[in-house]
Structure formats: C-alpha cells, structure tokens
C-alpha cells in the first residue's frame, strides 16, 4: 500500500524571502491559485507579522483560495501567533506554523535562551496556536545542527501540547542524505507519541542536496515535504517541488509513496512563477528547464524514435509540457479565443477578455502562429492585473548603424495623453529615457532580461525588468513581437507596480 506524502508549498513564504522574488498581493494570489490547481496539500502563504503587506497577502489567499490548507508562519511569540491566526481565519482550513530555533548555536547567540527556556517557549507557542485552530505545525529551526536527544524531547513535548505536524528543517543546508534519513528514522523510532503527528522536512539547498535529503527523509518515514516551485528560496533555495514530486512518482516502486499533486500543472506553475518574479530557470534544470526534455544527440533521437522509454523516464506531457502547441491563428474569433483560454485554465471577466483579445489580434497579425506559451503571456497581465496608471499609447523608434537612437513615446497617464522624445545608447535606452521624462520616475533600473517566448524569428519577445524604489524591488514584464515595444511595456509594468505599492502602503498606514 502506497503512503501519501503531503506537499507543503512554501514558494510564497520561504521562496518570496529570496532576493528579487518579492511579489505583490495580486501576484501572490495568482500563484496561490495555480498552486491550488496543482493540488498541493498546504500553501504557506506568508509570514503575517512580517509586514502589513505580508498580512494582507495571506489574508487575501485565505479568503479566496480553496482546496489546500492555508498556513501562516509565526515566531513563537504571542503577537506573531495572533497575527497569523487572524490572517488565516477566513480559510476553510487554516494552519498556524510556529517555530523557534533549537540548535546550540542559535539558542546561545541568536535567542540568548537556555534549552529549557526554548522547550518551554515551544510548548507555550503550540498551546496558544491551538486556541485558534486545530491544525498547528511546529518547526525546530536548525534541527539538523540540534542535539538529537534534545530534538526528540522537543518533538515529544510539542506533540503533547497539540502540534499536529512537527517539521525538521535543515535551515542551513548542511545535511547529507544518509545522515538526514537516520535523523528522521531516529525521531520516528524514539519519540513515543510520534504517531499523533506528521513528521515533516524542510531542506535548504546550500550543498545542492535539498531534494536528495527530502527523499531520504521520506524513505525514513517523513510524511510531509516542504518545497518551492523552481526551488526558489533563501540563499541557494529550497527543495524543488517539481523534483521531489516527480522523483516520488517516477520511482514509486522504490519509495512506496506518492503525492496528490496534479503533475500536469507543473510546467504552468513554473512558468507563472518565472513570469511573476523574473527569476529565470536554468535551461538544464530538472523537470522544468528548457532542455529537460530536449534530446539533441543522434543516438538518443534514434533510440527515442524506436521506443520512447529508451531515453525517457517520464513523458513531457506528464509535467504539462505541450511545447509549441499551435492553438490559434489570426482568423480565430473571440469565441475560440475564450474557449482556448478556459481550456488553459485562464478565467477572465468580460473586460479582461476584451483587452486580452485586442492583444491577441495584435500578436496574431505579426506572428504566423500563436502557441500556448504566447497565450499565457498575453493573459499574464490580466490574471494578476494592477491598475495601469501609465499605459503605452504610441511608440516610434529610429536606430541603426548610422542613426542616433531616438524614441518618441506617448503614454496615457491617468487618462490623459503625454508625449516625450529622447535619445539614448540604443533604442531601448532611448525609449526608457522618454518614459522616465514623462513619468518623472526616480526608480532605478537594476535588471533587464529578454527571452523569446516560442521559437522562430517572429517569436514574441518577453522582457523582464527589475526596478528598485524605496528599498524594494519591483519586477515588470512585457511581451510583444517587437522587443523594443515589449521593453517599454515591461518598464511601464514595473513603474505601475511602484505606484500601486505606494498607494496601498498609504492606504494601510493611513494619512
Ligand atoms: O529554514 C527554516 O528553518 C525555515 C523555518 C521557518 C521552517 O524556513
Ligand atoms: Zn527555510
């Protein structure tokens, strides 16, 4: 009989903590909705006590996302736990995830507490969290560098206090698979009340071993794995969800375990996260990298043609990769467009559908073929739409070997048209200077990335930019068959996010 391993996704909490991955509330909601389609068991939606923004993000997800349990992280303090409880309260199933460090180095230097004080605080935190919900997870931060007997005592005590999940994190990514598996096995064998809770693991990837450690823990009896889409997270990241899930699926013979994840939603989840954060996945990344299913060598291609299983241990379709699926052309109507979007899981209201259809016609006019990836890019701005304070109305650019790059840009700014002309080091730079003149922005551009969405010279270009403003990083995305136009759209998208963030911060903090 196969055990079901729970998948606890922490993309929106640990993942979002990593530099450059910050998301606004609407983006978090879009990612959470995709995680629900992916059928993860738990979504850790954020750390509500960290900031009003974090609180609002968790609360919105708890209100709107149905299916998975919605968890909020809390330090082992009254204030944090109450805040997490308030944030997850609207969820049909809410979880409070409280933690305190248990390793000698953390207790002595960071917490300045004795082991007995830490134990007492952990128990109090769990008891308090249980007054708000029956679903309480406790994490022993830096568990891998914690004295094993003490870790067992803490585990037993928090289970007795009401913890329903106990998480054993490798906070600093120090463990080696065999050793980590033994640690989990020890807890499973030595903690007398361990059958009253699920033992979870949460591995960081500092030595590139997060997935291997998580799998070793599953073999040793862990019932929950904490992970993130594309493996994003603090420093070198967390265990990658897609790798853990597919390893359990492909090698269920070995693990005798499986997950409830809808694996055909993996590719879409990975692409959505890339698009929202601008964090591009390396081409050779397992499962979701661009080359993960590409077979270049003649010997491999020959083998594949004779029998797929010669070189393929899982099909691209099993992770939702239906690359270059021709879906629509320039003669396709609104009805076919809407039906295809629905099939791809994009549900838009009438106004959003109208806007997306106009963009589709524009793309279809310029490209011969429109693929699923193109459609995902076309609707991306609609599924987590923010108010468009600045919109691109017209743009004309001249550049070349013997011309000074010059851009004339007209924007609609809060409904009124404003225009500027500027010269720059290249056409994109000229366009950005014109936009900066109109908007008066003092945000600093820190990253600029161009990618082709599908193959061919007529492919849409997707541009990702990052701008820094007020100590925060904002990611902007734009797609268009013309990369100078895509660049302008990406920049405006980032600037609109800056305006939106300033306005929501002003609303939260009041006059
Ligand atoms: O890495 C870690 O220890 C954590 C805990 C808060 C679970 O992220
Ligand atoms: Zn972590």
Fold and architecture overview:
This protein has 511 residues and is an alpha/beta fold. It folds into four domains: 3-277, Alpha-Beta Barrel (TIM Barrel), CATH 3.20.20.70; 291-321, no CATH class; 334-383, no CATH class; 390-509, 2-Layer Sandwich (Double Stranded RNA Binding Domain), CATH 3.30.160. It contains 18 helices and 18 strands. It has helices at 11-15, 25-37, 52-64, 78-88, 104-111, 115-130, 148-161, 177-190, 210-219, 241-250, 252-255, 266-277, 298-306, 334-343, 350-366, 372-383, 427-439, 483-509, and strands spanning 3-4, 6-9, 42-46, 69-75, 94-101, 136-141, 165-170, 198-203, 224-227, 257-258, 326-328, 370-371, 390-400, 403-413, 416-423, 444-452, 461-469, 472-480. The strands form five sheets. It has an eight-stranded parallel barrel with strand order 2-3-4-5-6-7-8-9, surrounded by eight helices. Strands 13-14-15 form a three-stranded antiparallel β-sheet. Helix 8 (177-190) links the parallel strand 7 (165-170) and strand 8. The mean pLDDT is 92.
What ranges have pLDDT less than 50 throughout 5 or more consecutive residues? none
CATH homologous group name of the largest domain: Aldolase class I
Strand coverage percent: 15-25%
- Alpha plus pi helix count: 18
Strand tally is 18
Rg on CA atoms, Å: 25 Å
Architecture blueprint of SSEs:
Blueprint (H helix, E strand, L loop, with lengths): L2 E2 L1 E4 L1 H5 L9 H13 L4 E5 L5 H13 L4 E7 L2 H11 L5 E8 L2 H8 L3 H16 L5 E6 L6 H14 L3 E6 L6 H14 L7 E6 L6 H10 L4 E4 L13 H10 L1 H4 L1 E2 L7 H12 L20 H9 L19 E3 L5 H10 L6 H17 L3 E2 H12 L6 E11 L2 E11 L2 E8 L3 H13 L4 E9 L8 E9 L2 E9 L2 H27 L2
Parallel strand pairs: 1-10, 2-3, 2-9, 3-4, 4-5, 5-6, 6-7, 7-8, 8-9
Antiparallel strand pairs: 11-12, 13-14, 14-15, 16-17, 17-18
Helix pairs in contact: 2-3, 2-12, 3-4, 6-7, 7-8, 8-9, 9-10, 15-16, 17-18
The site of 3-methyl-2-oxobutanoic acid (KIV) has 9 residues, from strand 6 and strand 7.
């Amino acid at each position: 009989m196969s055990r079901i391993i729970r998948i606890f996704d922490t993309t929106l909490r640990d993942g979002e903590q990593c530099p450059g991955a910050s998301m606004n509330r609407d983006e978090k909601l879009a990612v959470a909705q995709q995680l629900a389609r992916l059928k993860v068991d738990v979504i850790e939606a954020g750390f509500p006590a960290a900031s009003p923004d974090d609180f609002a993000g968790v609360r919105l997800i708890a209100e709107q996302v149905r299916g998975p349990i919605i968890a909020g992280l809390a330090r082992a303090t009254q204030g944090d736990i109450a805040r997490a409880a308030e944030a997850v309260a609207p969820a049909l199933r809410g979880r409070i995830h409280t933690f305190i460090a248990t390793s000698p180095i953390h207790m002595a230097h960071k917490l300045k507490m004795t082991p007995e004080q830490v134990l007492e605080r952990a128990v109090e935190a769990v008891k308090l969290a249980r007054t708000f919900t029956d679903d309480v997870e406790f994490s022993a931060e830096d568990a891998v560098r914690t004295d094993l007997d003490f870790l067992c005592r803490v585990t037993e005590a928090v289970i007795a206090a009401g913890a329903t999940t106990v998480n054993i994190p490798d906070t600093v990514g120090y463990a080696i698979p065999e050793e980590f598996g033994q640690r989990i096995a020890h807890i499973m064998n030595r903690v007398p009340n361990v059958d009253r809770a699920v033992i979870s693991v949460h591995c960081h990837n500092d030595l590139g071993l997060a997935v291997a450690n998580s799998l070793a823990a599953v073999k040793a009896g862990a019932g929950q794995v904490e992970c993130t889409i594309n493996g994003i997270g603090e420093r070198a990241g967390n265990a990658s969800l897609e790798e853990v899930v597919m390893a359990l699926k492909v090698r269920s013979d070995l693990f005798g375990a499986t997950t409830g994840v809808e694996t055909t939603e993996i590719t879409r989840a990975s692409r959505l996260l890339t698009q929202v954060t601008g964090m591009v996945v390396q081409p050779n990344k397992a499962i979701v990298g661009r080359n993960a299913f590409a077979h270049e060598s003649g010997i491999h291609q020959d083998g594949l043609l004779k029998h797929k299983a010669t070189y393929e241990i899982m099909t691209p379709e099993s992770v939702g990769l239906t690359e270059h699926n021709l879906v629509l052309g320039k003669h396709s109507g609104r009805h076919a467009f809407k039906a295809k979007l629905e099939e791809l899981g994009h549900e838009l209201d009438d106004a959003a559908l109208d806007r997306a259809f106009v963009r589709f016609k524009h793309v279809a006019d310029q490209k011969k073929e429109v693929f699923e990836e193109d459609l995902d890019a076309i609707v991306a701005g609609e599924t987590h739409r923010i108010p468009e304070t600045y919109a691109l109305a017209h743009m004309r650019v001249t550049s070349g070997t013997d011309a000074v790059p010059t851009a004339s840009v007209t924007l609609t700014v809060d409904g009124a048209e404003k225009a500027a002309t500027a010269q720059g080091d290249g056409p994109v730079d000229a366009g950005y200077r014109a936009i900066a003149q109109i908007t008066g922005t003092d945000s600093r551009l820190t990253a600029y990335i161009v990618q082709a969405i599908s193959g061919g010279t007529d492919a849409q270009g997707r541009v990702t930019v990052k701008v820094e403003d007020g100590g925060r990083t904002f990611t902007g995305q734009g797609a268009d068959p013309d990369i100078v136009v895509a660049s302008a759209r990406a920049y405006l998208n980032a600037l609109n996010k800056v305006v939106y963030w300033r306005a929501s911060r002003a609303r939260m903090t009041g006059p």
